[in-house]
Amino acid sequence: MTRQIYKSGIDWWMWLVLIFVAGVTIAIAIDSTLWVALPTCGVMIFCILLMVGCWYEIDGNQLVVYQFFRPHRFPIDKISEVKKTTGILATAGMSVRRVSIKFADRSVMKSSMPLEISPKDRDKFISHLKEINPNINIG
After folding, report:
1. CB neighbours of 101 closer than 8 A, spacing ≥ 6?
2. At what angle do helices 12-31 and 34-52 cross, to 10 degrees?
3. Contact in structure between 74 and 68 (CB atoms under 8 Å)
4. What's the superkingdom here (predicted)?
5. What is the pLDDT, as a whole number, of residue 91?
6. Please, what's the b/e burial string for 125-138 (b: 16 or more CB within 10 A of its CB; e: otherwise)?
7. pLDDT at 24 (0 to 100)
8. Do 106 and 93 touch, CB atoms closer than 8 A?
9. Which residues pair with 99 in a beta bridge?
């Protein structure tokens, strides 16, 4: 079985946040002591880790969502519905163009809420899931 990696989509606002935090960090570092500048450097590092530490992988029958380089595995055969959505829910993604994934078994997510992720190529991602599990309803 082959692995396919899908990068996370990153919207313009995430780049804007990173540039803003970098500007604030530089302004604080120029005009203050190291102990004042370190927390803002931490926020900038957090934003960078958020951007590079999020991607998605389809590995056999597993959907693996990496957030902060930490994998979360979900069984593809338990997916009941996949649909394209737009929204600003706080989930594993930095784009408002998302994919909402509902599972047939509530124990997978330990709730009734769908998994919302933001792969860069949503159409290819959804068709790949559909190849593995043809029972998925596309909404």
Report:
1. 63, 74, 79, 81, 82, 114, 115, 116, 117, 129
2. 160
3. no
4. Bacteria
5. 60
6. bbebbbebeeebee
7. 80
8. no
9. 84, 117
pLDDT value, residue 6: 94
- Structural domains for the chain: 1-139 (2.30.29)
Say what the pLDDT of residue 25 is. 78
Which residues does the chain have with pLDDT short of 50? Answer: none
Give buried/exposed letters for 6-37 (b at 16+ CB in 10 A, else e): bebbbeeebeebbeebbeebeebeeeeeeeeb
Identity at 64, one-letter amino acid code: V
Using CA atoms, how far apart are residues 132 and 77, in angstroms rounded to an integer?
8
CA–CA distance from 91 to each of 9, 25, 67, 101 (Å)? 13, 26, 9, 12
Write out pLDDT tens, residues 26-59.
Answer: 887 777 777 777 787 787 788 788 778 889 999 9
Average pLDDT, the chain: 85
Distance CA 122, CA 101 (A): 12
